[in-house]
Amino acid sequence: MRSFIARTAAAVLLLSPIAGTAACGADKAAEPGKAAAGSEKLTLTLNWVPYGEHAPFYYGLKKGYYKAEGIDLEIKPGNGSGNVIKAVDQKQTDIGWADTPVLIRSVATGMKVKSVGVFLQKGPTSIQFLADKNIKSPADLKGKTVGGTPGDAIYVTFPAWLKANGVDPKDVKVVNVDAAGKIAALAEGRVDAIQGFFHDQSPTIEAKTNKKMDRLLYADWGMNLLGTGIVVHDDTLKAKSDLIKKFVRATQKSWAEAAKDVPGAVDAMAELADNEPAKAVLTKQLNLGLTLLDAGSGQPGVNAESKWTETLDIMAKNADLKDPGAPAKYWDKSFTAAS
């Protein structure tokens, strides 16, 4: 098993150039940049190094869902949603997998990108802690120390989330922690809790500490921010709309089928990905991630406009998003529209 690098739970909003990373895909021996005969090459950059949430993409590769759509897909690890979105904007990658609040902030700064579908529609934004801390509600955070990374959507909205739940932000101490250091800070007892994505970080911490984790999910306490989804450059949506529709269709199938075959999805990722966590951690991460899909919207990735409006309203009130406008500024729903 290859080593696993801990990722940040809330994708970083600072937009620095994406680091060069090794590609991973179904055919690792294929010559870079060249598609198989009769197919078109697409590069997908993930929001971080591979973890359980990404298993459906590798499952789709293994099962040939992308190949069936005429796509030769290359998957690359990323370095935070902000970096991935910047890479899409600069046309350094065809498609990004990124957190929606980061996308919204990126579009607001002038980047020419859009979401074509959010898959984790119940946002994974949460406050995580060891279960023996006996934290059951936001009120139990009074007097506690919470680790967070400045610039993260979770960090920015944390005071408003506390206020909405009757807690004075002054009663909770927030300690600034580097994104990649939050897991260690909690595991070593330097903080009582961390801000992050529970479906990624909690299984990793449990594996490191052999202790059970628990969380307070923002969405369960009155503040749902849409999670990760597919991000594409505006020019690509116009010039290659049919190809992007095929990619979305294959991705929807990959997620739907992976949900029915979690062991198969985990095996596919273990075979095809680099630097992935152990299978036991992958399985927990994927199972937790699947709980965040919104089956009420139909197929994975099909969004209700009301959920976009809700996220935009939260960010306008609590994350300094000026004049957000309509969801269509950030999201093109036509790529997941039912046929």
UniProtKB/TrEMBL annotation:
Record domain SsuA/THI5-like: where: 53-261
Signal sequence range: 1-22
This protein's record includes keyword Signal: yes
Gene3D superfamilies per record: Periplasmic binding protein-like II
InterPro entries recorded: NMT1/THI5 (IPR027939), SsuA/THI5 (IPR015168)
UniProt cross-references to Pfam families, sorted A to Z: NMT1
Key words of the record: Signal
Classification via PROSITE patterns: PROKAR_LIPOPROTEIN
SUPFAM superfamilies documented for this protein: Periplasmic binding protein-like II
Domain of life where this protein originates: Bacteria
PANTHER family: 4-AMINO-5-HYDROXYMETHYL-2-METHYLPYRIMIDINE PHOSPHATE SYNTHASE THI11-RELATED (PTHR31528), RIBOFLAVIN-BINDING PROTEIN RIBY (PTHR31528:SF15)
Entry protein name: ABC transporter substrate-binding protein
Source organism of the structure: Dactylosporangium cerinum
